[in-house]
Amino acid sequence: INAEYGEELRDGGERRGWCPYFMARQLVPLADVVVFSYQYVLDPKVAKAVSAAEARPNAILVFDEAHNIDNVCIDALSVRLDKRSVEAAGRNLERLTGELDRAQAANADRLQDEYQRLLRGLNEAQSDAAGAVAAPPTLAVDELREAMPGNICKASHFLGAMRRLLSHVKQKMRSQVATMETPLAARDEIRKSVALEAKTLRACSRRLSSLLQTLAVRDIEQYTPLALLADFATLLGTYHQGFLLVLEPFDDRTPTIHDPILQFACLDASIAMKPVLELYKSVVITSGTISPLEMYPRMLNFVPVLTARFPMSLTRACLCPLIVTRGADQVAVSSRYEQRGDPAVVRNYGALLVDLCSTIPDGLVCFFPSYFYLETIVGAWNEMGVLRAALQHKLVFVETSDFAESALALANYRRACDCGRGAVLLAVARGKVSEGIDFDHHYGRGVVLFGIPYVYTESRVLRARLEFLRDHYQIRETEFLTFDAMRTAAQAIGRVIRGKSDYGVMIFADARYERVNKRRKLPQWVQQQLHPSRHSLSTDQAVSVAREFLKQMAQPFTLADQVGISLWRESDLPQSSRIAQPTATATAVEED
């Protein structure tokens, strides 16, 4: 089987009756290069079973597209419980109790063997190939090598402890008041309420995994809600520094409907990153939108030995970034809360959209800061006749918070571009379209950012994280919020440039982009093309510049034009290669 190709690996596994996933796992020690997703390295539930076991003494780990690596680290050590998952965990407990009763009637010796094994302190998770549930959610370095607590060694006692924990969680989520607690305070409350010690909480995930293996449960996925509750208990019993327990009883979108969320939130991204830096000889963090580089070592708490920025090698200036600060009527445009409802701002944004639809061929992607703002401005444009005017040139599609609707809109958007009709996709900068969806070539000849995509700042978890960053890493709130907004903006505009032969217009439609503290946080490959003549433009000036740029891009351009500049011949490699001897434990790189 040729393991270089996923399809051949899958087909070979089908012919032999082997699982392609586990077959790939067995081939990892034979490979020189292994491609993992972030979760295989950063998420403890997966990393301990896969990537950590395959780490070699001189292995080099490369995080590509690492602009959101801090968020991935935080998500890996956070657990979120809502009303539906808690109710489902209760049903899981009842079903598992039935499985236990049947096992006791059919084969009580097997349960007794497990009980004795746990009492003796033997390793209860003997084989990850058994495939019960994921490994415990805690990092390997934080796992205490302690025996299973005696009060949950017996299966029935463990299920009773989980019921008591579940009742405490349900009682807590009935509260109408938002609360934030430290893990130590939450543990003390659980101890007084349902008599569960921290040691018992820490062992919940391991004990559930052992029980599911003992009962030989086949459909493991049905117990995901119960596993989530066990992960919540394990994380709460293990960590205290850099974590917070947050209860939000109401969703901000429906403030009158009680819809509680209980979240054990990690606030420190460096906790998940630290064991990775210790495990691998060299770690490279790289992305085309990882800017500014200096922020990542501070958030992840490491000292880079090497920090490098590489310019983009282009045969022609195929990028046209423009900063639009005002409309044709000279009224400043911005998505700031104080201005976003101004009819003049909405009208100028609409005029810019219509003019771009008539100027930019094929696909045009427009990003907004939030779904709420997108819905608001689309409604206003409909009343003003903006959408009707845009439909004269292109079809209009809108991303929504529903995954199926967004997938259908995206598919039809591509069909409209393929058939030559042209289309506009109105999307959200932090939505599904802005991450992982490429609009290469005719699918995206232009991208517009209507406003700056700041994160929702009223989130209690975010406020707690901002306070933690300020107190422990001296990162000011405004500094982090601006950094986060600009990396989101860079990721959104980068969707339309997916190769050196590609080209596109990038419009930053907000007066605040003109500020130096915003521009300097854009990637270097954008700043290189952001000439002074492209600053502080009105909507009509931006359309004129875009029209001239597209005329230049329409000129003939062949592969031979790129050789020696953006493409190398084989003869160019020896004289251009640079071999560096790595001495770093971590390296931050911005690549174009």
Global mean pLDDT: 85
Overall geometric form: globular
How many helical stretches?
A: 25
Structural class: alpha/beta
Kindly state the number of beta strands: 15
| Spatial order of the strands forming the largest sheet | 10-11-9-12-13-8-14
Helical residues, percent: 40-55%
* Distance between the first and last residues' Cα: 35 Å
Structure write-up:
The protein is α/β, with parallel strands linked by helices and 592 residues long. Strand 4 and strand 5 form a beta hairpin. The longest helix has 24 residues. The protein starts with 5 loop residues before the first helix and ends with a strand.
Overview in brief:
With 592 residues, the protein is an alpha/beta fold.
